[in-house]
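Q: Convert this sequence to structure tokens.
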Amino acid sequence: MDRAQLPLNALRAFEAAARHLNFTRAAIELCVSQGAVSHQVAQLERRLGVTLFRRLPRGLALTDEGQALVPVLADAFDRVGATLDRYAGGRLQEVLTVGVVGAFAGGWLLPRLEAFNREHPHIDLRVMTNNNRVDLAGEGLDLAIRYGDGAWHGTHAEPILSAPLTPLCAPAVAARLTSPASLIGETLLRSYRADEWIRWFEEAGAPCPPLRGPVFDNSVLTTATAASGFGVALAPAAMFTRDLAAERLVRPFEAEVTLGAYWLTRLNSRPDSAAMATFRQWLGREAGREAGSIRPARR
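A:
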């Protein structure tokens, strides 16, 4: 059917009646009379040459033809409504989907989201957390904040923050730690990067004990486990300042090791939208360019 010939009022009346299975309730929703809804639906049935409803003594029942039409109309109306909702304050809201590694999301981004939304109400920000394993194209992400060395194939990466790792644990565990060497008697919680504890002990000038603690796929779970009193986590203290301030976690030693940083990444093939540029500039300003000493990785 040609677009110019689409009976939009009749389709709206049918979709509302199909949701309510009642002409009267559909009429109330559409602010018209019950007779107007019934007339529009009857017109649509005559135009299509099919029966869309079975009229019952106490309401309506969809026919097979009606059942087939309902999801198509519901999806179309929902998509139109969602698009119109993006016109806020006389300006189109641009959707920006950002994947964020869990520690950065909870420890840095979350406390600043309200300020971002207040400053940039035209950007509809959607945050998807992950454990640092990201498929930008497959997950439909505009940007991703990741931890590492900045060298991801086919990806442009800009430094955000340095993220040195240091032991974090519950206060009761910290009370029995007198030096890095005293960690030999503790459960050392590990990540999938097998060399982190080894490198930290090298930096601290102490021998690394055998590593037998459980392995976690993100530092949020690792530090939550440490806060419970089971083991010692090796994590970026800057991402857990609220836990440290509340003394749920304690940093027993000053020694730290830098094995990576947080980076803002996008596909090389992805053009930079206005929302992407705005978010990048805001992120750089808020981070204070603490990552100024980080050099982009060679490709």
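The longest strand covers residues 94-101.
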